[in-house]
Structures are given as structure tokens and as C-alpha cells.
Amino acid sequence: MTQRTPAAPPSAPVDLRSDTVTHPTAAMYERMRTAPIGDDGLDGDPTVRALEAHVAARLGKEAGLFVPSCTMANLLAVLAQTQRSEQVVLESSAHMYTSERGAATFTGLFYQGVSGADGAMDLNRLEDALQSGGHKLKTSLVAMETSHNNAGGAVLPLDHMQAVHGMARAAGVAVHLDGARLFNAAVALGVPAGDISRHADTVSLCLSKGLSAPVGAVLAGSQAVMAKARTLRRMLGGTQRQSGIMAAAGLEGVQAMGDRLAEDHVRARNLSDGINRLGSALSATVPQTNIVQVETADTGMSNAQWVAALQAEGLLTRPWGRTRLRCVTHRHIDDADIDAAVRAFSAVLSGR
181: closest CA among 112, 298, 268? Predict the structure, then answer.
């Protein structure tokens, strides 16, 4: 009887859906195993305190607050710096506007989107939004985002951020920075993260994207605002008890994983270049950081068809609107994966 050679197991797909799919590093697992812990809701957790202090210092703020997600960090920043029936102003494609403003259903706030380019608000329209009185709601918070998710990972210029902060300060309005991918922006600009966060009163930082921690975010700001945010965190169910186990991974992330984000940026650019060489039917954005958006409108295929066809070729992507796909590089993606991704796009394009 002839024996058959077992088929090789299928290789794992190249996963470009998000940098949130990253797994903890070996160093993170070790720090989690050995982290000193306490009860963060009672007398405090020493590793959480270390993370909060470290991030606050890196971002030039007085204090930090560890929370389960960047969405909660952004919400706490809003709640701690506003009152009901006031207005939050932000760029109209910002993540806090397109994906998080459902919070307005219980905050009693109005979110006003301001049009802009590449994630940067039009300053003339911002000036109008800062005017209060008459029939207008009082603006109590302006929010920026960098890097900017929906703008394809675009990074806000520092002079723009300085202008926004100056205009808001002159109007007596606080500024929050959604810095979910703040370290990506810092690497792209070649500056310390604190040079960016100085243009905001509060800053959120996600730990579970390119920094590779399994969960969590840190909100940083003044002592007074963080004290208020800590009380609000309890009200929202965000107290995590022995959360030093998770904070230890986050601390490793902010201390050791920031510089390597440059590798993700290079690979994102290589992916963009490779897709743009395939022909005019597909068009990829030229990334500043680790996000590439691919326009599929001229291919005659729907996004759902593209996602399914690419998956059959071993590539995972996410639909982004009706005619775009989003691809995000991260530390589990190497040069061979980028080559494989370009081949997958080419195969689907030629076979459509």
C-alpha cells in the first residue's frame, strides 16, 4: 500500500486588519508574572502606579490614570472637563466623532464636527465653533487626534496643534488629544511624545496597538483633572483590582516598544508602493505611519467581495467605508508578509 505524504498544514494568514491583533512579547509575559500587585480600587496597585507615573512623565503631565481602553480614556477626558448641555468640537472624521460619540446619549453633550484636511481641523471653522453666546452652545472642549485613524494614519503638524491649543486657550476651552497611536506620530515626526502632548491639556495613549500590550490605555493630565477622572472611572465600572498584571505589560510596551514602530512605517510604505504598482484600478494611500487605505471603487468588486477574495488568498483586511480597505502593519508583519500581501492583491485583481 502506497503511503501518502501528509499535506503541509496551511500557513497562518497575513493579518493586516489592525495593530490591535498584536500579542504580548516574552518580556511582557515575564513582567506580568513577576509584577508586584495590589488592589487598585482600595489602597492602590504598585505596578499601576508605576505605569501611570511613567506615562505622565513621558507626556509632560502631572498624573496618569490606567483604564481598560482608549475609548474609556477619551470618555473620561470629556466627562472630567465638561458640563451637560455643552459642546465638544473635533475634526469631523476623528475617531471620537465617528465611532465614540454615542457617549453623548448619556453625557448630555453635543459633539460638533469641524471639516478639515488629513485629520487637521480648518482653523477658520474652529474659530467659529469657539464662539459662544446667543443661540450657540458653549464649547467646553476641543479634541484632536494623532496619528489620525480615518485619515490613513496621518500625523498632525506640530504648528497646527500649537495653533489649535492657542485658540482654545484664548477662548478658555480645554484641549484633549486622542493619542491612541501617539507613539506612531512621535516616531513619524522624529520627536519625543511629550513634544506632541504639550499642545493638549489631557492625552490618551493606547497600550494595545503597536505597543503590543494585551489591553489598556492611560489618560494623562493635571492632578485635579485626573482625580476627577479617577472618580468617574469607578462610576463607569473601570476599577480593575489587581490590574498591575496588565499594567506590567503596558509598562514594558511604553518603555521598550516605541522605537521599533519605525519598522511598521517602512513596511506600510512598501505595501503602499507595491499595491500602487499593480495598476490604476487599485489606489493605495501613501502612509506617514502604519495605516494604508486601498481604494477599490474602480475594480468592479464590492468591499465584501474584496475582503472574501483576499482572505482566500491568505490575507486578512478590513472594509473601511464602501470602497476602501484598511491595512495596518504591526510587529507580527515582516517583509515576506508584505510581499505576500501584494501578491494577494495582484491575484484578486487579475482574477476579478
Answer: 268
Q: How far apart are CA 226 and CA 143, in angstroms?
A: 17
Look up residue 293 and give its three cell numbers: 487605505
Helix (H) or strand (E) holding 263: helix 261-276
**Cβ–Cβ under 8 Å, residues 213 and 248:** no
Q: Model pTM?
A: 0.94
Spatial neighbors of 304 by CB under 8 A, at least 6 apart, are: 319
DSSP type of residue 101? G
Query: Helices 261-276 and 182-189 sit at what angle, rounded to 10 degrees?
Result: 80
From 209, 253, 180, select the one nearest 32 (Cα to Cα): 253
The C-alpha atoms of residue 46 and residue 39 are separated, in whole angstroms, by 9
Q: Provide the grid cell at 325.
A: 480597505
237 φψ region: left (φ > 0), alpha (ψ -120 to 50), beta (else): left
What does the buried/exposed string (b/e) look like for 306-318 if buried means 16 or more CB atoms within 10 Å of the residue's CB? bbebbeebbbbbe
Query: What span, in angstroms and rounded, lies between the C-alpha atoms of 231 and 321?
Result: 37
HEC secondary structure over 288-329: CCCEEEEECHHHCCCHHHHHHHHHHCCEECEECCCCEEEEEC
pLDDT tens track of the chain, all 352 residues? Answer: 444 444 444 578 999 999 999 999 999 999 999 999 999 989 899 999 999 999 999 999 999 999 999 999 999 999 999 999 999 999 999 999 999 988 878 889 999 999 999 999 999 999 999 987 667 889 999 999 999 999 999 999 999 999 999 999 999 999 999 999 999 999 999 999 999 999 999 999 999 999 999 999 999 999 999 999 999 999 999 999 999 999 999 999 999 999 999 999 999 999 999 999 998 899 999 999 999 999 999 999 999 999 999 999 999 999 998 999 999 999 999 999 999 999 999 999 988 6
Three cell numbers written together for 17: 486588519
Complete DSSP assignment for 34-91:
H----BTTTTB-HHHHHHHHHHHHHTT-SEEEEES-HHHHHHHHHHHT--TT-EEEEE
